Amino acid sequence: MVAAVALIVVLTSRSGDDGGTTNAGGGEVFLQSASATGPDPFTQSTARATESAPPASLPPRTGSEEAGTPRVSGAAPGLYGGTRSVASCDVEQQVRYLSGQPAKNAAFASVLRVSANEVPGYLRSLTPLQLRADTRVTNHGFEDGSATAYQAVLQSGTAVLVDDRGVPRVRCACGNPLTEPVAQKNPRTTGTPWPGYDADQVVVVAPATTVVNAFVVYDPENGDWFARKHGDTGDRDEPTSPPTSTSPAPCPPGASPCPSGSTSPGPSTSSPGPSPDSSPPAPRPDSSPPPPEPQPDSSPPPPEPQPDSSPPPPEPQPDSPPPPEPQPDTSTPNSGPAPETSGNAPADPDTGGPAA
Q: With left for phi above 0 and alpha for psi between -120 and 50, is residue 223 left, alpha or beta?
């Protein structure tokens, strides 16, 4: 009770609206449970009573308050919960509430940077879902004819309307417009923590880099998963396969639109640092040089035995000339006696004497 009174006193001491960039609570963050209307609501509650989705399992957090709360892409599967074919907020009732109160409608429009006559269409473009993680936002109450900005943590299970980049834009329990939070250095927490609250598990939903065509949502009533198209109130919900991990992945530091490729998030987020240091640079250059070294050592030996085996054949070939030398020696003696026998035949006294 004391905490609630303190919250009201602090909120009523602020005035004006700046979109949540300044005058955002003076270093205070207000804890707002899922069902509480809270101070200075824009409208009555349009949240529908549904079973709250169990909190998403998030990877360990590191960093200081000054460094900021970890950011999760609005497209991350499992970031939101809900009941299949049932909207967590009554969008048409929200339209009627604001349309019937022009001052609040104008203040609401100024926070979300749309014109007053665009509010109905803007609300119908949002998607009713439930948070599955305690989430930091800039909340806005309505006081003295204008919106007042303050930093808040919305409890997991809070019914919200989400834009096409996955960012919560309306808190349905009070009709308040929401914007992205403002980083604060060592803020003070005001309000009663709910069971299971852990400041290290609080996240900021960052806009996805592209339009989220369908949100992958966990259904706690049926224990399964379904896909809800952005801007749909549940009429076109379809069953879908569960994500490879139910832990939404934090965005890289400094990423304003959060890359939505990271959508199988939990384990991959704790390893971005070590993976580039361990695999690509070191092992690949060390493993490639050894193969070229053995190859030049194995190629020279074959050429050396080849020149040693080829010279011996040409040496026996010059040893064969002796046969041509005896051939000219045998032809000469045969020609000598031939003329001698032809001359002696007519001079033989036994046969040719009387003739002579």
A: left
Instruction: Write the DSSP string, 214-244.
Output: EEEEEETTTTEEEEEETT--STT-EE-PPPS
* Angle (CA) 139 150 247, round 5°: 55
Residue 123: both structure tokens together: 């609300």
* 103, containing H or E segment: helix 102-111
Element (H, E) at 276: helix 274-278
- Burial class (CB within 10 angstroms; exposed 0-12, middle 13-18, buried 19+) of 293: exposed
3-state helix/strand/coil string of 144-186: CCEEEEEEEEECCCCEEEECCCCCEEEECCCCEEEECCCCCCC
pTM strictly above 0.85: no
* pLDDT tens-digit readout, 170-225: 999 999 999 999 988 888 999 999 999 999 999 999 999 999 999 999 999 999 99
C-alpha span between 356 and 352 (Å, rounded): 6
Is the distance from CB of 17 to CB of 140 less than 8 angstroms?
Answer: yes
Sign for the pseudo-dihedral over CA of 303, 305, 311, 313: negative
CA distance 147 to 101: 14
